[in-house]
Design a protein that fits this description.
By secondary structure, this protein is of the alpha/beta class. It has one domain: TIM Barrel (Alpha-Beta Barrel), CATH 3.20.20.370. 42% of the residues lie in helices and 13% in strands. It is built from eleven helices and eight strands. The chain has helices at 16-27, 43-51, 76-84, 90-108, 127-138, 160-169, 173-179, 200-210, 233-244, 246-254, 266-269; strands at residues 3-12, 33-36, 58-63, 114-117, 146-147, 188-189, 215-219, 257-259. Strands 1, 2, 3, 4, 5, 6, 7 and 8 form an eight-stranded parallel beta sheet that branches. α1 runs parallel beside α9 (233-244) and α4 crosses α5 (127-138). The protein starts with a strand and ends with a helix. This is ChbG/HpnK family deacetylase.
Length: 270
């Protein structure tokens, strides 16, 4: 049986080189989704590039609280601690989510197909409630966007401790999202150290062997760039090279994996 995989490139619009790499992979049929930083100064000029490809790829909002663009941000450690202690302002976070949703729509011409989060902040306690609220305020007529569920992580990649922490801090996100009518994927993957020495081809082969139908895997490709502000720039080019190459296509054929846009579970949405 053919297994449908939503392969999603994160961080669109973070930089020109990242975005160009993602666009090339979309054109080659190697990606079926990408999530964009609507806060980025590059988003207004790049949104049209994605809109021209919107029939081939899901385009989502990469909700951000940790990557600095035009405003100061708090590190991930701040959000991890404060969310677990429930010491965050729901109203402030909801307003931030609304701002990012609106900026996405202003330049893309419509609301996003899905929402995920940079460093998975969207799934942390309190932040998730603010995001649920913001989405329900904006999606008055359209179908709700689908959401990424980090607590459905199905493979630890090359760092079991990192995987354990992610599942722990995001616990019950999938259940709470589904209770509110959001579609989610039954299996999530793509987490690893993002170290340039990591065996990304080997990890991708392991993920492809393990996934069920309708799985979602994140990736972080980009063209080579000397970008001191991007700590994973070297890993991005390695991911791009593998995803663009014949070996990845052959692995998909071997595992009977079809890279496809997200399809909700008909049973869950009936």
């Amino acid at each position: 049986m053919t297994k449908r995989l939503t392969l999603c490139a994160d961080d669109f619009a973070q930089s020109g080189s990242i975005s160009a790499g993602i666009l090339q992979l979309i054109d080659a049929g190697r990606l079926s989704a990408t999530s964009a930083f609507s806060q980025s100064p590059h988003w207004p000029e790049l949104a049209g590039e994605l809109k021209a490809r919107a029939e081939r790829v899901d385009v989502g909002l990469h909700f951000n609280l940790t990557h600095p663009f035009d405003a100061p941000v708090k590190p991930l450690s701040h959000w991890l601690m404060k969310s677990q202690l429930r010491q965050l302002s729901l109203a402030t976070l909801r307003d931030e989510a609304l701002t990012q949703i609106d900026r996405f729509a202003d330049h893309f011409g419509r609301l996003p197909d899905f929402v995920d989060g940079h460093q998975h902040v969207h799934a942390l306690p309190v932040i998730r409630d603010a995001l649920f609220d913001a989405i329900l305020r904006r999606w008055q007529q359209d179908p709700l966007p689908y959401l990424r569920s980090p607590d459905r992580l199905g493979h630890p990649g090359d760092n079991r401790l990192k995987a354990l922490v992610l599942r722990s801090v995001c616990t019950n996100f999938d259940d709470q999202a589904r209770e509110r009518g959001f579609a989610t994927s039954p299996w999530f993957g793509g987490m690893y150290s993002l170290n340039p020495q990591a065996d990304f081809p080997g990890l991708m082969q392991a993920w492809l062997a393990k996934i069920p139908d309708r799985a979602l895997i994140m990736c972080h490709p980009g063209l080579p760039a000397a970008d001191a502000s991007d700590p994973i720039a070297a890993s991005r080019s390695r991911e791009f090279d593998y995803l663009a190459g014949d070996a990845f296509a052959q692995q998909c054929l071997k595992r009977r994996v079809c890279i496809a846009r997200f399809q909700p579970d008909p049973v869950a949405t009936a």
